[in-house]
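Example record

One chain of 140 residues, shown exactly as stored in the release files.
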Amino acid sequence: MYTANPAPPRASALQGYPYDALDDLLYDWFVWECTYRTTRGFSSVDKTCAASGSSRQWESTDAILEDSVCAWQMKQLDACVDELSGDHQLAIRVQMRNRRGPEVWRNPRAPVRQQEVYAQAKAALRPILRRRGVEVEVEC
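Predicted structure tokens for this chain:
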């Protein structure tokens, strides 16, 4: 019999922060980026089965299109973040790490001005996204 008491819910460390659609898109990109794994010099997949995949016949057309648009957006957003300065990239990654879990990550380049540098990074990112054709209002 399991008798442990569940942990009480804790308040978010980022309460009061005004999130917008770009914050959500950046968070989705951060989670997508965290799932990327580099190769280690040799393939872990048998070449005869490397291109196989499960059938998508049971998925709706909307779900298939939404997945492909989301994958395209993540690749474009990755390229856009790479165009930013190092300080802005760091501000975005620190903010997303804090949003993903407990707010324990600090920006060593701007410890007190993290929110300000993050806002500057978002402002610098918007025209780059627009130039690449990424719509910020659409969520994936």
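Notes: The mean pLDDT is 81.
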